[in-house]
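Please review this one:
***
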Amino acid sequence: MNRKATVRSVAMAFALLVLGKAIAVEADKGVASPPISPLATTGPVPHAIVAPSQKTIRASIERGVDFLLRDQRPSGGWGSAEQTKGLNIYAPVPGAHHAFRTAVCGLVVEALVEAEPRLTGDLKLRVTKAIDRGEKWLLENADDVRRAEMDALYNTWGHSFGTTGLVRLYQRAEGDDPRQEKLREAIEIQVEKLHRYAFVNGGWGYYDFEHHTQVPGGSPNSFTTATALISLRQAQAMGVEFPQKEIGEAIASIQRQRNPDFTYAYGEYLRMRPMRPINRAGGSLGRSQACNLALRLYGDKRVTDEVLKTWLNRLFARNGWLSLGRKRPRPHESHFAVAGYFYYYGHYYASKTIEQLPEAERPHFQDHLANILIPLQEKGGSWWDFPFYNYHQQYGTAMAVTSLLHCER
């Protein structure tokens, strides 16, 4: 990069940082937000369906759980750096894979912990043993997660989803003080690393191709930032502290990337190009759920129930745009530059978004979500959306199982 480009890039990062702080200050002062655009609360609605029965949902969950139990590694974790043929992902070894394994283990543990009290018999006994082994693996390995290279920060995913899994384990260990103390220490380590790798202009991303600075100076992503904020919210709920200044800057980053219709730019570097296909509604289907949820959890009053319902209905009515990217081997090769790995990610956060709505309004959305996910289950009980070493079936199944657990009455 030449000197002019470097200066311009640094100046933009500084300007975004100042803007983010200004937004956070205005929010703290209680300044009224501008009216929500009608574009945010109007959109397509899905066709009427015959809702899957609760028995069908439960059977699908149990098949998914059984797959995860059969797939657990001898070490207690899930996933591995195998099946490398034809991959189109930049993943420096070994750091990227430390992050992937921790993220996947966190997601699987979350699914199993949520499923455990709802299961019975031998399946429940197997789940309990698998969770204990997964807990041991996380406690022994999560601390290994680091920035893989100066330009690759996949560790953000490991810290975020690792935190989610550890928080679920902490809740499960209620009454066992020594166990909870170990888990809390592990959570605090992951949260501290999220603090360490927060981007200079607020939020988180997973690449820094331009700057290679100790404090990442690249472009944060709306959805990566949302994922980290949601995980941090879970940790904060159990008393783990995180600097409010960085929380405010991360929130401001997502808000800067939000368009009037509540599509979200892929990253800060695209926020001034809102009509790029990847930033339009079809490209944002997998992101808007996570971003809406993160902002809602942190008190953004613009993320109303109507906004949440509109985007859930969009996800179901226009699911084909997201599904066309499913199982394609190259990232972003589908319509609206959708990558396959956004599929179950989008539905995973949709299931959590549904729980922000009044209980009486949830069944419509739960039924549509289950109606989409159940037919996509593979013969062996798994779900997957992108050929990704030996991690795709594991994270896809974990996200789908968690989503379906949120669809049960």
